[in-house]
Amino acid sequence: MYDPTIFENLKVAFENNVYDLDNLEQKIDIKNRVDQMDLSVIARTFKIEFALVDQSDITAEIILDASLEDLAGEILEIANKDVGCTLALKFHKSIQNPDLQCEEIEQAIKDIWEDDIELTQTLSFVYGTELSSYTNAIEVKFKQKINEDQIRDIAMFLEHVLETLHMFTKL
């Protein structure tokens, strides 16, 4: 009998919770969804991007990854192998004053999320246009792998994502 992987179970749980926020609660609008199998390295990636209703200029993307090592460790039931998935968030927000706003964003992220994260902010702009704003790609990587034990935490996780999006509308 087919036994779904940790990745498959987490993907479905994230999908269900995010689609509920879109369809039932109408708090968000889903912008994009990716379910990818990378055959060159035998890895799985699931991404789902969304924005708050009426706030489409600031987006959040949940990124769930499983490497060959994680998939093989689970399927082959390798003892003492820390299997699971990596989880990351990516937010996109337009900013005008990077020196001030990047610092505010970093502090707000640290206030909302635990210390067990890696935070990266990458600024970009379109060359040849008048520079009035930058696009800030804010990436939050969680250091610990997740597995089915965290499925019950997904609703609370998504509440934190929504809180982060609301906070970004004020900065």
Defining key terms:
6-stranded antiparallel sheet, 35% helix, single chain
> How far apart are the termini?
51 Å
Sheet/helix structural class? alpha+beta
The shape is globular
- Computed over alpha carbons, the radius of gyration is 17 Å
Biggest sheet record: 6 strands, antiparallel
Tally of contiguous helical segments: 4
Uncertain spans: none
**How many discrete structural domains?**
1
Task: Give the oligomeric state of the chains in this entry, treating copies of one chain as homo and distinct chains as hetero.
Answer: single chain
Order of helices and strands: HEEEHEHEEH
Residue share in helix = 25-40%
- Give the strand order, joined by hyphens, for the main sheet: 1-2-3-4-6-5
Instruction: Bin the strand percentage.
Output: 35-45%
* Average pLDDT number: 92
Number of strands: 6
